[in-house]
Structure formats: structure tokens, C-alpha cells
Design brief:
17% strand; 13 helices; globular; four-stranded antiparallel beta sheet; Pdz3 Domain; alpha+beta; Cathepsin B, Chain A; 3 domains
Length: 422
């Protein structure tokens, strides 16, 4: 990373946090629309994209001569033509060069650029802060929310819902550190049940509508259509014709209706904040990672080592994901790719910290090396072609996950050493 880029990011988190209230940068939803473009992050082993020679960074322009502007557009076209039986023209862009290819019906076989950003809270905060004219970095936000440093699992949910469940534990601290104030629009009590929460939704909708009318941005968790029902996102408008709120969440190329139960909602404002020092930032991230390396049994979520234990236990069952047995492989693949994306995000953040804190370079390098080793093991799982659904393959996958868990356990001790140095 060039020093000029680090200084620019530091300015975004520090000096620019003193921007006056009400200064507007990008339109709300701009971050979501940008990453929803059909850009290739990784080609899948033995998939069409790999065999055609498509590479990371290539942009899909058209499919069957129909312009493609988002991943959703492409998925819809793939589904429509999945049984056509005829060759399909595809146009991609690589740099300034257009590639004209012919593909088979069915999935193209790649992970989109949007899947590099699995932290829905970090993405929502990036979009809100960019709207306030603050230049921010997703990787820093994902680290400060703990989502790129700790794997979490909800014990009562299908494994397809595992990543990222405890980010709200540090929400207030994170908001203050990046120059936001949050006002609760709805906060359920400890005894509130789901049916009771349903009865509160109309009241909450009115409160959000009122906040929008005052020109506020609203951060929410939950309410989104499947599969991102409990993700973080932001509300952009209320439609009186259908009495629904609309907004953006992880993976959305355009506005989505909030048709489910909203779990949390906050009115956000931009505030003046002092500089956030790199050493303080890294200490905060590592302390959170250590705390979340322990079990949060009272919340329904497990994190860190305990989350890996749940993953390994799930791999001892057939099918892997009882709640979505026909999609067990997709559930497992989602976990692998999400964890890989989080590790890459953590390493990008650590690269910035290494430049800012050269005296701690050796310990930061040790953490980066362990993360890189985990990425290598995840790549090994991806390349192996092992499938969930058979006892033998699931036992092999459980062993691989156990090896990753051991590296994670070693990482916790390095975090303690680095916190002591800081």
C-alpha cells in the first residue's frame, strides 16, 4: 500500500470526521449499487468462467445480447435460459478490451465482487459515512465491527446463516469512533417475543418515516427479504402506496422492500470527533477479537473457537444443513467463501496498520501469516471438490475445519502479545 493511500484513509477517519453536520457526499445506496456490478472476484474451480479464461476483475457486459448491469440481472438471465439448450453469447470487459464469448446455459461459475464484502454492518456504515462526505474504508469498518476478525455462529440457525451475528455488540463504540451518533427508534425489551415484535412494526415504520422526513439516515438490522433477512442496511424512503419502507442491504443492486421483522433501527447523525489513532484502533480490534473468541452462550450466538466447534459438529450430520437439505452444498460453500473474504479483509486492514505502526511489524506479520495460512486451507477445501452429503467427504471437511480452528486458537495468543506491545 502506498503511503499516500494510507494518509488519505487516515484523513477519512480522522480529520474529515470534523466535517460540518449536513454536508452531503454520495447518494444513499451508491456503495451498494457500485459493488453489485457483475465484476468477477473469483472463478469457481471446474466452472464455465474458469474454462473460458475469465479472470478476476473482468466485468460482464451482456448475456444473450441483453445488457447486464448487476449480479441480479445476470442471475435472472441465467435462470431464464437455463433450459434453453442453445449456445449463449456473452460479452465481458477486461481493461479496455471487450471479450466476445459463447457459454452454455446454466451458471457461469464465479463469485461476484460483492461477495468480497460479507460484513453488512461495515457496508451500511460505509454508505452512510460516504453520504455525509466522509472518505472511509470498508476494511477498517469491518475490523472495528469485529466481523473480519471473528467467525460467529447462531446455535439455533441453519449453517447458511452463520457469519457475522455479534457485530451489534460493539455498535455504539464503533459509531462514536467514526463520528456517528445513533438514536434508538426501536429497542425491544428482554421479554419481548417475536409475535410482540410483529405488533410493534407499524409503530416502528411510522418512527422511521418521521426520521426520513426530517432528513435523517436510518440504519436498520432485519426486515429484508430472504436470504438477508437479519442483515444490516439503510432505509431510503417510505412508499405511501404500499405502506412499505425501502432501502439497501448486502447484495442489493437497487432498493428492496422491508417485508420482514425489523430487529433494530437507529436514526443516524454525523458528529465532530477527535482523531482516531492507529494504535488505539488496532487495540480496540484485537480486544474485541479476544472477547469474541469466547462463547456468547447467553445471546444464542457462539463466536471464535466455539463457532468452529459448531461447524465441525454440523459436518458430522447428514445432511449438513437440515433446514435446507437440498441446498446443503450452497450453505457450506457460502461459509467457506465468507470466511475467506473476511480473512482477506483482515489482512488488508493489517497491511495499513503495519505501515502506521512499524514498531509492531513483526507481530502484525505473524497475524497476517496465520490468516494467509487459513486462506490457503480454505482454498484447499474449494479446490478439493469435496462435497457435503456423504459421510466420507464430510469427515474430511471436518478435519480441514479443525485445522483452521487450531490456527485461530494460536492467533488469540498473538493478539494478546500485540495488545501488550501496544
Amino acid at each position: 500500500m502506498k503511503p499516500s493511500r494510507f494518509l488519505a484513509l487516515a484523513a477519512g477517519f480522522c480529520a474529515l470526521l470534523a466535517c460540518r453536520q449536513g454536508e452531503i457526499g454520495t447518494p444513499l445506496g451508491d456503495t451498494y449499487e457500485r459493488i453489485a456490478r457483475p465484476v468477477i472476484w473469483r472463478t469457481l474451480p471446474r466452472g464455465q468462467a474458469e474454462s473460458l479464461g475469465l479472470k478476476p476483475g473482468d466485468v460482464i457486459l451482456s448475456y444473450n445480447d441483453v445488457p447486464v448491469r448487476s449480479n441480479d440481472d445476470l442471475l435472472e438471465l441465467e435462470a431464464q435460459l437455463g433450459q434453453s439448450g442453445s449456445a449463449i453469447p456473452l460479452t465481458a470487459l477486461r481493461g479496455d478490451e471487450e471479450l466476445n464469448l459463447v457459454v452454455r446455459p446454466g451458471e457461469l461459475g464465479y463469485m461476484p465482487e460483492a461477495d468480497r464484502y460479507p460484513s453488512s454492518l461495515a457496508l451500511a456504515l460505509e454508505d452512510i459515512l460516504s453520504h455525509f462526505g466522509v472518505d472511509v474504508d470498508y476494511d477498517w469498518l469491518a475490523a472495528l465491527s469485529s466481523e473480519s476478525f471473528t467467525f460467529t455462529a447462531e446455535k439455533t440457525e441453519s449453517p447458511s446463516r452463520w457469519p457475522g451475528g455479534l457485530s451489534q455488540t460493539y455498535l455504539d463504540d464503533l459509531a462514536r469512533s467514526v463520528g456517528l451518533s445513533l438514536s434508538d427508534l426501536y429497542e425491544p425489551g428482554e421479554t419481548d417475543s417475536a409475535p410482540a415484535a410483529r405488533g410493534e412494526q407499524e409503530k416502528l415504520t411510522r418512527a422511521i418515516h418521521t426520521a426520513l422526513n426530517r432528513g435523517r439516515t436510518v440504519l436498520v438490522r432485519g426486515g429484508w427479504p430472504e436470504p438477508g433477512r437479519d442483515d444490516w442496511g439503510l432505509v431510503t424512503r417510505y412508499d405511501p402506496d404500499d405502506s412499505l419502507l425501502y432501502g439497501y442491504s448486502l447484495g442489493s443492486a437497487g432498493e428492496l422492500p422491508l417485508t420482514g421483522i425489523i430487529l433494530e433501527a437507529y436514526e443516524t447523525r454525523h458528529t465532530r470527533k477527535p482523531e482516531l489513532q492507529p494504535g488505539d484502533m488496532l487495540t480496540t480490534v484485537l480486544v474485541q477479537a479476544l472477547e469474541m473468541g469466547q462463547a456468547y452462550s447467553d445471546t444464542g450466538w457462539e463466536s471464535g473457537i466455539a463457532a468452529y466447534d459448531l461447524w465441525i459438529t454440523a459436518l458430522d450430520t447428514i445432511p449438513f444443513c437440515p433446514q435446507c437439505s437440498t441446498g446443503s452444498q450452497a450453505c457450506f460453500d457460502r461459509l467457506v467463501w465468507t470466511l475467506r473474504a473476511n480473512k482477506e479483509s483482515a489482512n488488508r486492514f493489517l497491511t495499513d496498520m503495519r505501515m502506521a505502526l512499524p514498531d509492531q511489524a513483526s507481530l502484525i506479520d505473524e497475524i497476517t501469516a496465520d490468516n494467509t495460512a487459513i486462506i490457503g486451507k480454505l482454498d484447499g477445501i474449494i479446490q478439493s471438490g469435496a462435497k457435503v452429503g456423504t459421510r466420507q467427504d464430510q469427515q474430511k471437511l471436518a478435519m480441514a475445519v479443525g485445522e483452521i480452528e487450531q490456527i485461530e486458537a494460536d492467533l488469540l495468543s498473538v493478539y494478546e502479545d500485540l495488545i501488550g506491545e501496544l
